[in-house]
C-alpha cells in the first residue's frame, strides 16, 4: 500500500489539474471542531442513540423529548464550534480555483463560516427554525426556549430546518447535486461514511462521469478501493492541510 506522503502527493496533483472540483462532506469533517458524529464513538451520544431521536417519527410522536435530547444539545454544540483546517482547506481550494461547490450533509454551517461561497446544504440547516404547520422560518433568537417545543404564531410546532431520517431531500438541491456530480472533474469525499442515501450515491455518479474521486476518512468506507481513486486514511484537518500546502507549491512553480 502506498504511504500517506505519496497519496497526498497524488491527491495534490489531481487537485492541481482540476478545474471543476466538487467536495462532498459529512459529519466527520466537523469532528475536529468538537461536533460528534451520530455513528460510532462520540462522547455526547454514548448514553443516548441519536439515530433513534433523529427520525421524523420520533419528532412527530414526542416533540418535547426530541427537543430536549437532540435539538438543544446540537444547538449548544454549534454555538461553540468553529471551522477547522478541513473546512478552511476547502475554502482555500475554492480560492485557488479548484473546488467550485461543496455539497454537505452537515447542518452546522461551518463551511459558510470558513468562507466557502457555494454550499449546498443537502440535509438543511440547524441555524433556522421552521413551523411544522405553516413553514414559516424563524431565527433561534426570535423564539423563547423556556418551554420546548417552541411554538409558531399559528400555534404550530417549531423545529430546526433540517432533514431528519425518514424525510425527503429537497428535489431542487438533489438535482443540482446530481448534475454537479455528473459533470465535475474531481470529487473530494471527506468525513462521510457513505451509507446515507442519496448523498452516498453522488461519488458513484461522479466516478461514472469520469471524475477523479479522492476520499479522506480515518476509516475505510464502501467507496474505498471501489469508487475512490485514492483513499487517504486519516483525519480531515491534517490531511487537507497537507494537500492544500502541496497544491499551493504546485501552483507557485507552474
Ligand atoms: P457519517 O455516517 O457520515 O459518519 C461520520 C464519518 O466520519 C465516519 O465515516 C468516520 O469514520 C468519519 N470520521 C471520523 N473522524 C474523522 C475525522 N477526524 N476526519 C474525517 N472523517 C472522520 O455521519 P453520521 O454522524 O452518521 O451522521 C448522519 C447524518 O446526521 C449526517 O449525514 C448529517 O446529516 C447528520 N449529522 C450532522 C452533523 C453536523 O452537522 N456536524 C453531525 C452529526 C450528524
Ligand atoms: Zn406556523
Topology, element by element:
Layout: H1 4-17, E1 21-25, H2 50-53, H3 56-61, H4 63-80, H5 85-95, E2 99-104, H6 110-114, E3 119-121, E4 124-131, E5 137-139, E6 158-162, H7 171-183, E7 186-190, H8 202-208, E8 212-216, E9 230-232, H9 236-252
Helix pairs in contact: 1-9, 5-9, 7-8
Nicotinamide-adenine-dinucleotide is lined by residues 26-32, 35, 37-39, 105-108, 123, 191-193, 195-196, 217-219, 221, 235-236.
Question: Which properties best describe this structure?
Answer:
binds nicotinamide-adenine-dinucleotide; elongated; alpha/beta; binds zinc ion
What would you say this structure looks like, in words?
- The chain is an alpha/beta fold and 254 residues long.
- The protein contains nine helices and nine strands.
- Strands 3-2-1-7-8-9 form a six-stranded parallel sheet, with helices on both faces. It has a three-stranded antiparallel sheet with strand order 5-4-6, covered by helices on one side.
- Helix 5 runs parallel beside helix 9 (236-252).
- The two termini are 30 Å apart.
- It binds nicotinamide-adenine-dinucleotide and zinc ion.
- Nicotinamide-adenine-dinucleotide binds at residues 26-32, 35, 37-39, 105-108, 123, 191-193, 195-196, 217-219, 221, 235-236.
Can you summarize this structure?
With 254 residues, the protein is α/β, with parallel strands linked by helices.
Mean pLDDT: 95
Lateral strand order in the biggest sheet: 3-2-1-7-8-9
Largest sheet: 6 strands, parallel
* Structural class based on helices, strands and sheet pairing: alpha/beta
Distance between the termini: 30 Å
Q: Which small-molecule species are bound to the chains here?
A: nicotinamide-adenine-dinucleotide, zinc ion
Give the number of DSSP strands: 9
Q: Taking Cα atoms only, what radius of gyration do you get, to the nearest Å?
A: 19 Å
Helix tally equals 9
Question: What fraction of residues sit in β-strands?
Answer: 15-25%
Binned, the helix content reads: 25-40%
SSE pattern: HEHHHHEHEEEEHEHEEH
Q: What overall geometry do the principal axes of the alpha carbons give?
A: elongated
Runs in which pLDDT lies below 50 for 5 or more consecutive residues are none
